[in-house]
Amino acid sequence: MPLFGICTGVENAGVVKSAGWDFIEGNVQGVLMGDKDDGAWEASGWKEKLKGAELKMPAANCLVPGALKIVGPEADLGKLKGYMRNVLRRAEEVGMETLVLGSGGARNVPEGFEREAAREQILEFARMSAEVAAAHGVTIVLEHLNRKECNIVNSVEEELEYVRALRHPNFMGLVDTWHWWLEGEGLGIVEEALPWVRHVHLADKEGRVAPGQGGGSYREFFGVLKRGGYEGRISVEAEFVGGLGTAGEVLGFLKREWEG
Question: Residues 168-205: pLDDT tens digits?
Fold first, then answer.
C-alpha cells in the first residue's frame, strides 16, 4: 500500500491525520518563501510550524511564482538560481523531499517566442535546479499541465521527453490523473513513464473533485502503478465535496481501489 496524502495547509494536519492519511502536501511559495531572505523566513515562523505539525509535509507544489519567468525574454537564470537555493535549502531544513514543478505561469511560452528556445530554457532551469536539489537531498518532479492551464509540457509523453533528456536523479516525473484525463492519454504512457515517476496527483475528471466523489474509477490506473512497482507518494489534489470531514471516506475508497 502506498502512502496517501492530501494537498492542504498545515493548519489541517490534525484533521487529515485523524482521518488516517499519511502526509500533507503544501505550497512551496507559501511556506518556503523563496523570494524572501533568511531573516524574513525565520521571522515568519514557518520552520517551527512545519517541524511541529501533527502530520509531516514531505512534498509541496507551486514551485515557482508566475512573476519569476522560467521561459521567455524575461527569464533570468541568476534570479531563478537565487530563488531555488533558498527554496531547496529550506526544504531540507524542514524535511521536504519532493517539490512539484507545475508553475504554468512561470513556464508558459509567450506569443511569438520560439518553442525550441522555450524548451532549452526549461531544460536549463531544470539542470540548474537538479544540481542544487541534489546537494539538499530533494527531488524535483515535473508536472504535465493541460492546455487550458499552460501551453508547454501538456502531457505525460511530453514530460517524459524532458526527464529523459536531462537524465538527472533529482529531476524526475509526476503523473496527475486530472491533467492526464483531460489530455486524453491512455494507460500505456503511464506504464512507459513509471521508471521516471516519483510522485502522483489524483483528482476525478468530472469537477476535479476528490476520488470517489465524481464517479471516476482508479483500479486500472492503480493496477499499472502496482505492476510497475511504484513506491512513491500519492496526493489528492482536489476539492473535497463536503469539506475535509469526508477525508476518511475518500481514503477508504482509495484503499479499496488500490486493493481491487
Answer: 999 999 999 999 999 999 999 999 999 999 999 999 98
Centre a 10 Å sphere on the Cβ of residue 110 and count the other Cβ atoms it contains: 13
Q: Classify 212 in phi/psi space as left (phi over 0), alpha (psi -120 to 50) or beta.
A: left
Q: What is the pLDDT of residue 21?
A: 98
C-alpha cell at 61: 507544489
Neighbours of 71 (CB within 10 A): 23
CA dihedral defined by 61, 139, 78, 31, rounded to 10 degrees? 40
Residue 99 makes CB contacts below 8 A (sequence gap 6+) with 28, 59, 60, 61, 63, 87, 88, 91, 133, 138, 139, 140, 141
Which domains does the chain possess?
3-240 (3.20.20.150)
This prediction has a pTM of 0.97
Q: Cα-flanking dihedrals φ and ψ of residue 98, to 5°?
A: -135, 125
